[in-house]
Amino acid sequence: MTSQTLPQPLYQHIASHSIQQLEPAWLQLKKGSDCILQAGGAWQHYYPQQPQVGQKATELFDVLIGMLPIIEDFELPQIQLRDGQYTDIFALADKEHDWLLFCDVTQNTLQLQQYQQVSNDLILLKAQMKQTLHRYVGHEISERITQGEMQLDAAGERKTIATLFVDIRGFTPFNERHDAQVVMQTLNDYMHCMLPSILQHHGMVDKIMGDGVMAVYGVLASKTDCCFNALHSAEQMIQAVYTLNQQRLSQGLEQLGIGVGIASGEAVLGILGSHERRTFTAIGRHVNLAARLESNARVGEILIDQATYQALNQPQTFTPVTLTLKGIGQTDIFSQTLPCISN
Amino acid sequence: MIQKKVCILGAAGVGKTSLTAQFVYSKFSEKYLSSMGVKIDKKVVTVDETQVNLMIWDIHGEEKHKKITSSYLRGAAGILTVIDGTRPETIQTAHEILTRVHTDIGKIPNIFLCNKVDLTDAWDINPKQLDELKQYNNPIYNTSAKTGEHVEESFVQLTRMLIKP
């Protein structure tokens, strides 16, 4: 804007107000060098003394080292020449001289910093929450939730899922025999080798209950049927525990086995709890059945219900068994046992 | 004395200011304060009996809507590209920054710092992502501005690369 578009008194008012706020200081430099020919303006804002004719600008301000002589005009915004003070530096060249202009932008910068601080705090918080969510529900679902593509609906959503329960056999007596620190470390070792098997097969860790885990399949999108995912998880889990047991055996540590129960059917997925504390869960008849199957499974054994057996196309590796399950009664189920303890 | 300008670059919140403070003043603060513009710190580094005055330009974090001004990079002899080891998405920012540096001022010595290695439980960089960084053939250090792990070594290594290319 020029004085031609605004009445002169108004233009001068705006210009003087703006210039006053910027507290400008300037250096006229010998063309193509950093040698000061003239200095003027509010230098007390930028440097302890008034720059002198003949001094080198790069000796006064480290920020200019490597920047001079001015080959083309440039701007260095928000430079902290002093702690907490921000300066915009403009480098300009005309036919006869080079120029450096210093403008105080502290006030604006501090205002912007407040917004940026809030924004960056949110970015870090979001990343932290995403990571926490990731650990509970896996990478895929946490990505979908944080991008707003999926909501965990409190009203519940009906879906056909497979539910897997796994538990470390003989963990209660192990717990009684060892110090809590040892128990915690052992549990972590087993969880560390079991949980990836769930996540790799599109399962979602619903709960970790001491030495037991409940996982659901079919909540996350997968090209594979949820029952196959659950079975592959279980097989991989037992294999991983077998490998861990080999290591523990070589270290002279006690080996622990796991048992798995899988059942499938329709369930309602939703949020349970109060306003203050909520948890995602799956509720359905087959969920209880899966828990009962797991509690009957021996070391290395995978027990599956009729529905899962049918969905898996009646795999020949499973043999039929009839068990009386607590609260359910006599039930026809199928069993497969894999090596879990190392000899 | 030899004088070299180095820029410390990376996404917001990766720990650029904390790394600089640890290297120059041996200080660390848990409180995160977002940096604006540029702050310049100096430290004399001795490499094989050669003294180098390092001028460290601690430049504000690269953000989607706030890119690093190319004039800040002018005259830089080397760069430290910082990644937050607990936030794999900051690797992508590092790739973008390096591409811009190469376009603006050409290929200059660079060191990758995967920072916050003290946060072992939250560490989230996998070998595949690390391999993507290795394609640059630049040294990679796992650092902690908090404990000082590999901080001095990485700055000294960059200085060595500047005087003995």
Question: Can you describe this structure?
Answer:
The complex is a heterodimer of chains A (343) and B (165). Chain A has 343 residues and is α+β, with helices and mostly antiparallel strands. Chain A is built from nine helices and 13 strands. The relative contact order of chain A is 0.09. In chain B, strand 2 (38-47) and strand 3 (50-59) form a beta hairpin. The longest helix of chain B has 17 residues, at 89-105. In chain B, 45% of the residues are buried. Chain B is built from four helices and six strands. Chain B has helices spanning 16-25, 89-105, 127-134, 151-163, and strands spanning 2-10, 38-47, 50-59, 78-84, 110-115, 140-142. In chain B, strands 2-3-1-4-5-6 form a six-stranded mixed β-sheet. Chain B has a single domain, classed as Rossmann fold. Classes of the chains: A alpha+beta (343), B alpha/beta (165). The interface between A and B is medium-sized, with 25 and 28 residues.
Architecture of chain B, CATH level 2?
Answer: 3-Layer(aba) Sandwich
Number of helices of chain A: 9
Number of domains of chain B: 1
pLDDT averaged over residues of chain B: 93
Shape of chain A: elongated
CATH second-level architecture of the largest domain in chain A: 2-Layer Sandwich
Indicate the CATH topology of chain B: Rossmann fold
CATH topology of the largest domain in chain A: Alpha-Beta Plaits
- DSSP strand content of chain A: 25-35%
How many strand units of chain A? 13
Task: Give the SSE string of chain B.
Answer: EHEEEHEHEH
Global shape of chain B: globular
Across the major sheet of chain B, the strand order is 2-3-1-4-5-6
What kind of sheet is the major sheet of chain A? 8 strands, mixed
Would you tell me the structural class of the helices and strands of chain B? alpha/beta
Give the SSE order of chain A as H and E letters: HEEHEEEHHEHHEEHEEHEHEE
Runs of chain B with pLDDT <50, length 5+? none
